[in-house]
Design goal:
The chain is an alpha+beta fold. Helices cover about 45% and strands about 25% of the residues. The chain is built from 5 helices and 8 strands. The protein has helices spanning about 20-30, 55-65, 85-95, 130-140, 145-170; strands at about 5-10, 35-45, 75-80, 80-85, 100-105, 110-115, 120-125, 145. Strands 1, 2, 3, 4, 5, 6, 7 and 8 form an 8-stranded antiparallel beta sheet that branches. The protein starts with 6 loop residues before the first strand and ends with a helix.
Length: about 170
């Protein structure tokens, strides 16, 4: 990573389909692989029928390894914070996390990646060097400052809501 103070950025997932969001999520995780040491995610089994077979297999291995039998649930589970340096554990997290409702990965100096809502929101804490590297590997998908992204997305959603309300009132 570069020398500038890190700031939060989000992957602009607006307009991406499920496969594109999953790919962006995996690119971010793989790009940060050298510095990530711990991770956690939830496993929303209630929607498992929508997952690809390899995603189900990865979720099952995460469950077997990290969710005690006494805490297993057919609808929702959590891995807890785990060491992700083992190659199989890492592979399972990377395969599964785009389907998680919530996931976080930590480096030795903080929490550089937060993911939520099946990769709809991907937030990365990046300095200038990491920002440049991620921008290159994610293109044409954009990384935008978190503050700007929140403002733009909130404004767009409010405009959409206002349009729906106005259409309903004029009927």
């Amino acid at each position: 990573m570069g020398s500038e103070s890190p700031a939060w950025y989000v992957v602009d997932t607006d307009g991406l389909n499920d496969d594109e969001r999953a790919a962006a999520c995996r690119v971010v995780l793989q790009s940060l692989r050298p510095v990530l040491v711990r991770g956690e995610c939830d496993i929303p089994w209630s929607v498992a029928e929508t997952w690809a077979p390899e995603v189900v297999a990865a979720a099952t291995r995460l469950r077997e390894r990290f969710v005690p039998a006494s805490r297993r649930d057919p609808f929702y589970e959590q891995t807890g914070v785990q060491d992700v340096r083992d190659p199989q554990v890492w592979a399972d997290f990377v395969t599964f996390v785009p389907e998680a409702l919530d996931a976080t990965f930590w480096s030795t100096d903080g929490a550089p990646v937060h993911l939520s809502d099946q990769a709809d929101c991907i937030a990365v804490r990046a300095d200038d060097g990491l920002l440049e590297a991620l921008t290159d590997v994610l293109a044409p998908v954009r990384l935008v400052p978190a503050r700007v992204s929140f403002t733009e997305r909130t404004a767009a959603r409010l405009r959409g809501l206002l349009n729906r309300v106005m259409r309903a009132l004029w009927r």
